[in-house]
Amino acid sequence: MTGAAISMKRRPAPPSPRANPLLGTAGRLRQDPLGCLQQFVDEAGPACKYRFFAHWWGYLFVHPEHNKHVLLDNYKNFTKLPHPTFLLLYPLVGKGLLSNDGDSWLRQRRLAQPAFHRGQIQEMGKIMIAAAQKRFSRWEQSARSGNLVQFDREMMEMTLEIAGRTLFSVDLTGEASEVGAVFSRLNEIFVKLVVSPISLYTMRIPFWPSTRSVTRNVGALDRVIYAMIDDRRATGESGSDLMGMLLSARDEDTGEGMDEKQLRDEVITLLIAGHETTTLLLTWFFYCLGRYPEIEAQVHDEVDRTLNGRLPTVEDIPNLVYLRQVIDETMRLFPPAYALSRWCAEDDVIGGFATPASAVITLSPFITHRMPEFWPRPGEFDPDRFSQANKQDRHRFAYIPFGAGPRQCIGEGFALTESVLVAAAIAQRFRLRIPEGYVAQMDPQITLHPKGGMKLQFELR
Ligand code: HEM
Q1: Predicted TM-score (pTM) of this structure
Q2: Which domain covers residue 283, as residue numbers?
């Protein structure tokens, strides 16, 4: 018996919030996941054990010390598979970096890591800016016409193009609408599956409607991805981008390359992880600027002073200090990855509470980022929280938009470079106006979307 198992016996289970003894909280979680998680914490405290459905329980931990335990101190005990969310996502992402565990995860992470080194990302800056720049004339026309644009879709097409070009040297713009549309459809399907108590059973039934939709959409995506891999192999060159690194990787013992399925899993994972979250960050960022004109004015002032009319480059990033603070504050209130899922491998103790093997665990950056103990006036949008002086004494694990520990987002530097450059380039030329009376509602799918998308109006500055 391990030390954790022995000490667990003397520990209480986390308190439980109210729940229907049979139906549990599955219905409420489906209707309003964020409101429901907040209610759990309000009723039971920062560690709670909630009845999901019938005899299935879930564990929610939101205190920064809990985050530290799960993500860093004892991270090996908290795996992705066989957490139900990752089982459900398996047909899409397989065992790509996001969902893999153990030695296989470590090997793949080491293989991919060099593609995300600082020097590589600096090189990518030009591609990021070019992708924004080529859209300027269309956005200018849109500004002149005064029409609303589906802003989240604009950002999605741009970030997908950036991910395709920088990581895989492919032009996805032709297919962007198709690949993007497939991702959106799969997102909608998965969000329903994740909160359904029967989906782990129905996913095994091939003719079940949701199973058929998943199979059809994943099949469409696979055709694009395998064609991308084949085209690259056909050139006979590996190249220095991520695709090149994955293609030329050899197992140290056997000398064999990565098999087709693993390669496909990594490419799909990185394409999804590499554009979806950044899309949401940029969408919420411009929504926040539109909501708070004084903050918008400060961003414009900084961008104008720093750039003096020219396009931004990676060298400008250290000088765009306030813009970066606004990005950080946007991710505090609207963290694209609003919940992190883990499976507890062996009995453990988190924050003094017994957490048994096989427990299904949720951490929630969304809830942690709004805890009044760490964030005074948590609902207020205040970028000064992230000034050098103000962020110094904060608990490191009170702010985890990119996760933390060994499984921290591999694309953090990439995402921040892209967001700062693109946000500066757009803010230099345009203002995004929020239509009269529109207040964005959050729609927590796998990631945190604005409900019904976000329509904004480009205005020339
Ligand atoms: C604003 C943008 C982004 C946010 C908020 C974000 C957030 C996160 C978070 C919270 C995790 C940890 C998940 C967990 O612990 O369960 C993660 C992991 C990951 N992210 Fe990101 N991400 C962003 C952009 C990117 C980009 C641009 C890429 C790739 C180009 C990327 C690739 C990945 C991968 C592969 C993992 C899994 C890493 C591992 O487990 O080793 N992400 N991301």
Answers
A1: 0.95
A2: 3-460
